[in-house]
Design brief:
Helix 10 crosses helix 13, helix 26 packs parallel to helix 27 and helix 26 crosses helix 31. The strands form six sheets. This protein has an eight-stranded mixed sheet, sandwiched between helices. Strands 9, 10, 13, 14, 15, 16, 17 and 20 form an eight-stranded mixed sheet that branches. The two termini are 43 Å apart. Strand 3 and strand 4 form a beta hairpin. It is an alpha/beta fold.
Amino acid sequence: MTSPREAAVERFFGGLPFAPDAYQQDAIAAIARGASVVVTAPTGAGKTLIAEAAIAIALSEGKRAFYTAPIKALSNQKYADFSGEHGPDQVGLLTGDNVINGEAPIVVMTTEVLRNMIYDRASALETVGVVVLDEVHYLQDRFRGSVWEEIIIHLPQRIPLVNLSATIANAEEFTEWIRARRGTTELVVETHRPVPLESLYLVKDRFQGNRCDLFPVFSGEQPNQQVVRLLRKGRGRRRRFSGPRRLEVAEVLQGEGLLPAIYFIFSRAGCDQAARTVAEARLDLVPEAERREIRRRAELLTDHLDPVDLAVLGYSSWAYNLEQGVAAHHAGMVPAFKETVEDLFAEGLLRLVFATETLALGINMPARTVVIERLSKFTGDAHELLQPGDYTQLTGRAGRRGIDRFGTAVVLHNYDVPFERVAAIAGQGSHPLRSSFQPNYNMAVNLIANYDRTRAEELLSASFAQFRAERQRTDLEARLGERNADVAEFRKAAACDRGDIWDFARRRGSSATSRVRAMRDFVQQTRAGDVLQLTAEPGDRWVLLARGWNGSPRLLLLAPNGKTRRMRPDQLPATLAILGYLDLPEPIRSRDSGYGSGVARLLREWEPDPDVASVRFDQGTTDTDPVASCPQLSEHLSWVRRVQRGEREITRLQRRLGASSAVLVEQFHALLQLLDEWGYVREWSLTPKGERLRFVYNELDLLLVETMSTGAGEGLIPADLAAFMSSFTYESRLRDEPEVVPNRAVERRVQALEELSADLSSDEQRLRIPTTRAPDAGFATLAHAWAAGSNLDDLFDEDAMAGDFVRNCRQLLDVLRQIRDGFPEFAAVAQEAIVSVDRGVVAAGGRT
């Protein structure tokens, strides 16, 4: 008899216009059996179909489905997709700053929203039948990755998880961890890329009239040796090869039929500039009829924005770029502009989009070609090379299923990244998923509120980081046991029946060290012109032409036959002696071969002065230990060296074992100590301030609660509160960006906040806790002006990064809502601040 779940799967498959792939069927069958799944597959392979089937199964049982995504843009897109499929009444959206139909059967949300629900013990979880974690490999993100692990650890175990990811190298290990946390979990791996990928390398040859050439990165499975040989020709004072300029790349793509393309530039300003440059070149990328359609669609998709705001946003130049088939896409754009670019590109109306890497996170914008300008990006601290998995994620957009026979990835030549390294990154495909899990203040107080101490520490130890550490510890312990056994056997083999081989080896080593030190001292007494004897052979003599002056000076020696030799002190024999002195012609030209021939002739004619005694190197006394006469001495010493190497490895393994202890639990204890000192916890219970901290979700959570608990919000009008609260959400993109605050009332509070932040940082350093970043009042003046009623054109000139302004305002709204809901004494003024900020272009957002 068919079960309700099986019937739901049959209905789902029956409604598809195509036959699902085998891996999709396997994953859906596992979900129907009630298991959680981990699905890894290349971008574009159809992982979303598995999520849709999981949703259908949950709905068939009268349960709800939660779909989480790492970024709001992807959440908005999935909301639109599911609304089109199921109807808007059946789908909700929760992204912190956007709440639509939150009680719907299907709810799309960011991961932070779900994490907060879990900690709040929200009743909404009681009817949930499945949770989809899209882009689950995002848990390695060093800033937000902990959220994914918190969900996997704390979500009620009755709710199965559907974990969707691009290809990762350690998928089995990751699945084992989830299985250990949540019970039955099946791994489904798909390695086949629906549209094969060809990686190309684009080089500009300056010696050939700046000609741009495309070469395959690989020849078979090996790096293309033609490229390796070509680049070797370009070495020298004047570099022959370089990466083409952006306009040149666009012309190559057009000429080679590689459009439409996404061109990744890890800079917002770079994306905007590239779009302008290519649009102004008027490459005729789109015909006139399509330009008219682009114009019509752009007007339609932005008609909810005020015309005055559109002028400030640079609508005319943005629309001109669109009509030329070119656009930028990054977080500095307002949502309506970004969504318009996405729609136009998906419809095939745009030919070239210059984008930052956020576009690679699941947004449905497939292209024929993906261009990566640089294989390194600035992380805020330094430039780091992309990982193989990053390359796979970026190039996952290349190749449109059902349209292209293969996708193309183009990497531009960069002198700083060797071609062989490019091939290694492009060829590996994935890299191991690593945990970024770190306990923080909010997590600590929620663990106290929800669990006893033992269970809380168990849950901390349940992180993927600790799971990997414990597996590594097991491997280290096994290796340590093997090395200890090896060393015991080596010791037996090293034993000598003539005496103590260990004492002999120690004295010999000490003697050798002393000899090297003595030889260095001896050499430092030499001077150019000294005639040296290296061996006991009659007539063996060398004249010193030059000597270095460091602690271990190298010698340049000349023989009577004109041969030269360079030697370090440790290369000189124990028979070394100074026979006398040869007066060298001045000036000494040690590099001149003619000069050397003349000195060699003088050396052949030179005889030592019988009245001057030679100076010999004192090599010490001869060893009379009976071990020294053992015929197997060299073999014994070989085993001694193996024991010494083995003991050094044992020391390293023991050190690594010590480092792999329960670091997270130790850090948690340090957090508890600080929270106790600051009055948030007492023993294993929360104070009133600790209870407030539970419901504050902010990077500066402890500072925020401490600030508001001390009454810093008292006496502030709504605009002042908005300006002050922006210090907790804003972070300058440019270092040392000057802070300008709007008035004295805000300034006093910002100064007090900075002092509080310094105190916290000092305590964190004392307790060896990762330090909380400092608050940043760089947005305060803009936030104050906007909340006080200024218009967009009062704040910005044309082409301003208004998208950043909108994003920062929405983050500000999120923290203002937390103040309203968590601090009743400030609820009224916080609500007024919310109303004053959530208007105009900030409230308009995109279409969702």
